[in-house]
Amino acid sequence: MRRARPLHLRRRLLSGLLAVGLALGLGLGLLLLGPALAQTRVVLVDDRGKEVEVPLPVERIVVAGTPLYTEVLVDLGVKDLIVGVTESPNNPPEVADVPRVGTPFQPSVEAILALEPDVVLGAIGDVREQLEAAGLVVVTPVLFIQSLPDVFHIVEVVGLITERSVEAELLIGRISERIVAVESRVVQRDRVRAAFLFAPPGLAPFAVGRGSVEGELLARAGAENVFADVEGVQQVSWEAVVERNPAVIFTDPAQIETVLGNPLLQDVEAVKAGRVVGVKAASLTSTRVADALRRMAQALHPDAFASP
Domain boundary residue among 177, 212, 240? Predict the structure, then answer.
């Protein structure tokens, strides 16, 4: 039997004083208890601190959570194991013909059961309870993705249950290398005052603060988050945005015009300079996160990327 210890006791995601890059020691610290058992099951600790036993080999997987799970499965070369996914515009094109089982926040228990999966990835709440009561194995490593370590943890766990741990570590290494490359371009530059806002039409904006993956990437991209005092993602007023006067505003691409056209923001530095930049939130919890980080860093420090 292989046992994965809780990641917060073992994972290391190190940044130097200037946050130059990532030093990864993410191995799950597996304890082998005999060659026969090691080939038949793996025991994981999920987001609840509960041990979940996964019989091996896993041959049928349903993704009932974030498209990140689907993306990782595709990146690890095990797309053929996917028999169902949630509906999302962020799904990789490789699963266009795979049956849908509802949305990430409201998957259909009946649709999942009908597919007879060996493992369900990412289910939470009542859906998870119903699936487990029906005898299915549900693996949810983290409840909500709040940091790059959470992204890497999901990659690790998917690698374990699909017996692709080596490929998972290589994928983490490639992502980390690209993140370091971006950070190295901006680490010695003055930080630019910035905000990451979610701005649904007709509502006050939601600002990204500390303890969020968006906030972490703002820091890695060379920004000074003007809402760093906010915990997680919280609704604020437009007047607060005016008062804090960011030089760059990141938002969902579909919400750029909402920000640019807001009459209250016309004197905000980012709006006056046309530095309102679209970044899809889903790209920040993706195996393509280094691409999103580079886009953010280029918006903040265009001169740093003037040379190859």
Answer: 177
Residue whose C-alpha is closest to residue 196's, from 182, 206, 211: 206
Q: Is the dihedral of CA 21, 48, 136, 124 positive or negative?
A: negative
Over residues 190-215, the pLDDT tens digits come to 999 999 999 998 899 999 999 999 99
pLDDT at 278: 97
Greatest alpha-carbon pair distance for the chain in Å reads 68
Q: Which residues of 258-268 are buried (b: 16+ CB within 10 A; e: fewer)?
A: bbeebeebeeb
- Range of the structural domain that residue 197 is part of: 190-305
Q: Tell me how far apart the alpha carbons of residues 88 and 152 are, in angstroms, rounded to a whole number.
A: 21
83-103: per-residue pLDDT in tens? 999 999 999 999 999 999 999
Q: What domain count does the chain have?
A: 2
pTM as predicted: 0.86
